[in-house]
Amino acid sequence: MTAVDDGALTDRKGTEESIEAETATLQNDEEFEETNASRVRIAHLSPVFPAMTVTVDSESIARNLSFGEVSDYEVVEPEEQEFEITINETGEELEVSQTLEPNTTYTFLAVANVTENETVQFEPLLLRDEFAPPSETDASVRFVHASPDMPAVDITVAETNITVANNVSFREDSDYVALPAADIPLEIRQEADNDSGEVLDRVNVSLDNGTVHSIAAVGYLNPEAAPIDAPLNVGLFQDARLETNGDDPVTDSADAEPNEENTNTTSPMIAVADAVTDVEDATEDVRDSIEDAGQANETEDRAAAFDDVEDDLGEMERARLDLESGVENASNATLSDEAEIALDAADDAQDDTEDAIDDVQDLLEEDVRDVEDADVDEVAAILNMTLEQVTTAIDEIDEVANSEAAENEIEGNS
To answer: Residues 307, 227: one domain?
Structure first.
């Protein structure tokens, strides 16, 4: 199992949780192709189910797998198989029978619910990982519903008429669909006609070209009434990616050669500059909303003001994620000394923004309609400090980002 950044689970307010998600990628190896075997991985998506080891045909295919982890794919004989689940802490064993077909790839979902008598009920699900290879400029995604108390949902791309999934209930998944390779803001809506239901959660996912992903909703929509304190999280884990020279899904490799036709000829520092500006605008919006909340006298006005704070905070987090991605991309290029200084300032701004989001989040997790004005002023002061760092980054980036010389100093972009 190998941890990856894009597998980090994201909570309802858009901040990263410490739950570790793992990636597993699909590869075409000789054993799989020549023996008509099946391939299986295990995804542990239940916060109420303990760490486990899964054995199939006397072979362990996942060891000590905990909530939020996904194992690598393993080759298994295509027949009716007993999945033997051993609870690591107690040694208790469960058996689940599943029929595996030749030349088929599966994800075995470990999901569970808690009954009225407070008994954990294991409710696993076997998914077929069947998808059409995405184009070189697209990615393929599906949605997996693993939140016991969340109703049936539709998944849409924010501020568009693009639908990713329709009417997906607990223990169900959607078909794979193609989306542009980009940072995509998704909305999880309560199922309704025309995808017009209430937005239950928002999440920004970063999709690379030629990749295949599962987007999983785990935890509880209403953690206060849940058997365990596990708020709703939305995680992205990779199913497969395409070789740059063909359509075969393969394992990620550090030795893969870049596709020259898709090389971005724009300086990555310009993308960083745009992202920093977006962070500045979003931070100012949150600060203004916080100040409005602090000045509101009536309870109803104060509640509405804090609703605006939550909305603006989501935009601030999306802008921060774009900045984080931009900084990471630029850090892989060869930059001038001036550009390196500007990039360090942008990275500092991203860190400060993340800290500021956490501080505002702490405020929102309280009974925000009753907090004292002094608390609001303190958070506003923190946001102002963040804006100072962001402004510093903008000033330093402006000196190099639009400079023709800086662009030409980036290897491969001259």
So the answer is: no
